[in-house]
């Protein structure tokens, strides 16, 4: 019988993408790891919000929430910006974070496409 670790169960319930409903805002790509011995599971999640002055503001808030129980560990693997236009059903990912570097926008785009099925989701490395 295969048993799932507490960390893996927690990761299964984490939304892969959570962004503001519209506008242009900073985002971070976060790799969430299990802290449990023998469990090397990990997921990448996207978080983007207009309230953040800095990319680190998003990472600090999200990582603090996810790491609370001691089962998960977070690592910011980069950042950028998202332009979300719900009226035209378009999301564009671009730019970089001065503090965390450029996220792999292709990974970010795949996470967003899985959640926004009827959207056109694009990316490029241009801009800040």
TrEMBL record:
SUPFAM superfamilies: PHP14-like. Belongs to the janus family. Exhibits phosphohistidine phosphatase activity. Monomer. It comes from Champsocephalus gunnari. One of its GO terms (cellular component) is cytosol. This is 14 kDa phosphohistidine phosphatase. It comes from the Eukaryota. InterPro entries: Janus, Janus_sf. It catalyses: N(pros)-phospho-L-histidyl-[protein] + H2O = L-histidyl-[protein] + phosphate; N(tele)-phospho-L-histidyl-[protein] + H2O = L-histidyl-[protein] + phosphate. The keyword Cytoplasm applies.
């Amino acid at each position: 019988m295969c048993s799932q670790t507490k960390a893996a169960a927690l990761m299964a319930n984490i939304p892969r993408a959570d962004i503001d409903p519209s506008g242009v805002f900073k985002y971070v790509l976060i790799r969430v790891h299990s802290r449990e011995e023998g469990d090397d599971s990990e997921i990448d999640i996207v978080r983007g919000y207009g309230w953040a002055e800095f990319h680190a503001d998003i990472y600090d808030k999200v990582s603090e929430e996810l790491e609370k129980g001691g089962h998960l560990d977070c690592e910011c693997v980069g950042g950028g910006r998202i332009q979300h236009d719900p009226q035209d059903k378009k999301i564009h990912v671009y730019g970089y974070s001065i503090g965390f570097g450029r996220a792999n926008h292709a990974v970010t785009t795949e996470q967003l496409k899985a959640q926004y099925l009827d959207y056109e989701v694009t990316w490029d490395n241009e801009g800040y």
